[in-house]
Amino acid sequence: MVDAGFANRFEKGSLLWWNADYTHYQVQARIPEYAYYLFVEYDACIGGNGSRLLADMIADDADFVAHPIVADLSWYWTAFHAGIYPDGQLRASLNCISFFSSRALMHLAARRRAMSAPGAGIKFWPLGEAFVASEIEKAGLNFVPLGRYGDVSRYTWFPPILEADLVLPAGGHTFVHPVLDQKRYIASLLRQTHFVRHYFMPGSHLRRELRRFPGAVSRWQLYRAALARAIQRLQIARGGL
Description:
Blueprint: H1 15-18, H2 22-30, E1 36-40, E2 45-47, H3 50-59, E3 64-69, E4 92-101, H4 102-116, H5 128-138, E5 143-145, E6 151-155, E7 161-162, E8 174-177, E9 179-180, H6 182-192, H7 205-210, H8 219-237
Helix pairs in contact: 2-4
Protein name: Glycosyl transferase
Organism: Komagataeibacter melomenusus
């Protein structure tokens, strides 16, 4: 990615977690002959007729299809992006399932490279979920919400859905995220549940779900998860990432 002209910058996590859009530009560079590209992350699922879905997106002349995120002060990342997308310019989207026109990907890649150039002066490197939607909007490209094409009621970041529990309706399009195997499902519950102490509360969602997997989680893992969540809440309270 760095050799392709994209900055080796991220504010949290890792390069390709923070800049998930980077891989899209690599795909287009390797197979440039397509007019449209549909990306589906490993933990996302589309139920329905894929050919019909693509035909509908193309018929709408969509440049970008994703699930919009309301980028107001309630969104955790909003305050961090004020310097680069001020005065109501910030847009955001959940891009686990995302559709792009070729021209949209070319524009976004050019913008990332321009921002990566020495002297560009980008203090806070924008998260992919903010960068893509904001730059599409600024360029006047056609951003169509994913919900136009089907049910997005189970398309969010938490709680996860156990792969073995996934049931898709027979008709229409359904978009689901995140769908995880048992190991990743348990890890997500421990990492994202606000207070891991809920495990010790009878009837709690966390306790009910973990009891489905006898012996899979030790008390030490619970204590460690609780400590990690407490540290994270403290960092957030102090204005950190």
